[in-house]
Amino acid sequence: MSLPRANDKPLFTPGPLTTSRTVKTAMLRDLGSRDTEFIDLVRDVRRRLLDIAGVSQEKGYEAVPMQGSGTFSLEAVVSSCIQPGKKLLVIINGAYGERLAKMAQIHGIDTVVLRYKECDLPDLSEVRSTLEADPGIAMVSVCHCETTSGIMNPIHEIGQIVAELGRQYFVDSMSAFGAAPFDFEGAHIDYLVSSSNKCIEGVPGFAFVICKRESLAATEGWSRTMSLDVHAQWKGLESNGQFRFTPPTHAFLAFHQALVELELEGGAEERGSRYRANYECLIEGMGKLGFEEYVARELQGYIITSFRYPAHDWFDFDRFYDALNDRGFVIYPGKVSDADCFRIGNIGRLFTSDVASLLGAIRDVLSSMNPDREEHISTSVTR
Ligand SMILES: Cc1ncc(COP(=O)(O)O)c(C=O)c1O
Questions:
Q1: Are residues 57 and 87 in the same domain?
Q2: Which DSSP state fits 152?
C-alpha cells in the first residue's frame, strides 16, 4: 500500500512526531466550533477512538477529548475522577509516573507510591499487598510504555489485580495507544489517556480519556478544577456535541485524517508492526555500531529505545545531536536518572528506510567524532 510520506526532517522522538503530508494539509480549513460539520467530526473521532480500544458506547465506554497536551488529560483524571478523601496508588518506574504522583500531591490527594528502578518492572505481589493493606486506595495508576526509558509495563496483569481487589484502574498510554494493541476490557481499565500527537500520528493540541461510563458517571462533583473536569466535559459533549471551551479545531481536522490513515494502514495491529520493524532495524544497526540499550531486550517495547552513551572521551552528546541534526535527523536526549543515555523513537510516519538512513548518518557522525576513525565503538559503554 502506498501511504502518504512526509517531506520534513524525520523526528525520531517521543513526540510531536513526523506526520503525513495529508494530515498536515487537512488543517488548511477554518471550521467554527459550533458548525455541524465540526460537531459531526468530533462525534466520529470519539467513535473511532473507542473502536481502536476495541470497545464502544454500547459496551459502556466513552471517549472524552480534552484541550491541551497529554499532561492536561492525565491531570484531568487525577483531579476529577478520584473521590475526595480517597487515595491514589501510583506505580512508578520513570519520570512520567513521578509526574503523575506530583499532580496528585498538588491537588491534595493522598498518594501512595510504589517506586521501581527505571529499567525494572513493577513487582506485582507488592501491588497486591499494598492494595490489600490499604482499603483507602481508590485508584491505581501506571504508565503503559514508560517513555522515559521505553520499558513496557504489564498493564494487563496489573489490571487483573486491581479489578480483583475492587479498585479503579488508570493507565497512561500516551506513547503506546494506537500501536500497541491490547485487550482493553480484559485489562479492566477504567480510565486510559493518550494524546493526538503520538501513535495515531496527528498534530499536538489535545488529548483524550477513554473510560468506563459507569466509573465516569459516578464522578459528578468530584473535580478540584473547572477546566479539567472530565465528567463536565463528557456531559457537555453529550448534550450538544460541543466542547465547553474553544476546541482545537485545526488539530481535530488533522486528527480525523490521521484516524482515517490509521484505518487504511490496517489499524493498531499493522501500525504496531511497522513500528516494530523500525525498532528491529534500529537495534540491529545500533548493535552493529556497538551501542548498548538501557532496558533489557525482553522488557523494552518498540515505541522508543534508550541507548547508553559510548564510554569514549571523544563522545559528546550535544555534538552528536547537532551533527545528526545538521544531516537532517532529529533524535532525543535521555531522561533516565541513573545512566547517561539518549533516545531514538520508532513512532510517527517513519519507515525502515528512514531508520536505515538515520543509521548511516550515525555511522558517519561517529567516525567524524572519533579521532581513530573506527566505525565500531566500545561495547562496555556505561560511564
Ligand atoms: C507516558 C507519557 N506520559 C505523559 C506524557 C506527557 O505528555 P505531554 O508532553 O503531551 O503533556 C508523555 C509525553 O511524551 C508520555 O510519554
A1: yes
A2: E
345: domain range? 268-369
Q: Is the shortest distance between the CB of 340 and ligand 1 below 6 Å?
A: no
pLDDT digits (tens, 9 = 90+) for 163-217: 999 999 999 999 999 999 999 999 999 999 999 999 999 999 999 999 999 999 9
At 193, list the grid cell.
489517556
**299 and 171 share a domain?**
no
Decide: 172 in ligand 1 pocket, CB within 6 A: yes
96 Cβ below 6 A of ligand 1: yes
Last residue within a domain, chosen from 212, 234, 264 = 264
Residue 198 CA: which ligand 1 atom is closest? 14
Closest ligand 1 atom number to CA of residue 71: 11
Q: 10 Å Cβ neighbour count for 134?
A: 13
Q: Are residues 125 and 205 in the same domain?
A: yes
Q: Which residue is closest in CA terms to ligand 1's atom 10?
A: 70
Say whether 144 sits in a helix, a strand or coil.
coil
Asked which of 225, 249, 264 is the last residue of a domain, the reply is: 264
Cell numbers found for residue 169: 484502574
pLDDT tens, position by position, 101-128: 999 999 999 999 999 999 999 999 999 9
